[in-house]
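Hello forum,

I keep getting stuck at the same step: I have a sequence, I want structure tokens, and every attempt I make locally crashes halfway through. Rather than fight my setup again tonight, could one of you with a working pipeline run this one for me? It's a single chain of 156 residues.
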Amino acid sequence: MKERWAEVSPNASEKQEAQFKIWLSGKGIPFISPEAEDSYRERVLLMKDAIQPQKTPLRIPVCPSAGFFPIQYAGVTMYDAMYDYDILTWAWEQFFDDFTPDAYNAPTTIVPGKVLEILDFKFYRMPGRCVSERTGIPAPLFAVHHDMALRLCSGP
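Reply #2:
Ran it on my machine without issues. Output:
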């Protein structure tokens, strides 16, 4: 391990406090209401209290990595989520509105279908290619050789 990672910077606490101050300010965030702004600040303080061992948090912050659940919960197909970003956004908003987690986790597990098509990416089973548009969940196509993958999955 590099030496710089083994030691804590002497001003780490000050840097962390400065970062929390910026985060807490909410500068640049277009809050839809004063209640939303208050809720945001409460969550930042909750996260701060959980990260810093100076004060016991009111509760443990909930920051789920939701995977595919928001899509299934919203009743959206994986194909639609991968190809229609407005639908993906709507599904994620439904999840966050209904479950109100304390922090946002982007839909990074949902790969953009259009990009994979442009790249002619064939090592991924995805809705519309090797898997039904209506029921499929993307999955890696494990094949020993590139030619074998092309024979197994030569979809559109």
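DSSP finds eight helices and three strands in the chain. If your local run keeps crashing, start a new thread with the error log.
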